[in-house]
Amino acid sequence: MHSSGTLRIHELTPEERAIYATLKPERLPEHVAIIMDGNGRWAGHRSLKRFLGHQQGAKSVQLVTETACAAPAPRSTS
Question: Coil, strand, or helix at residue 33?
Answer without folding.
Answer: strand
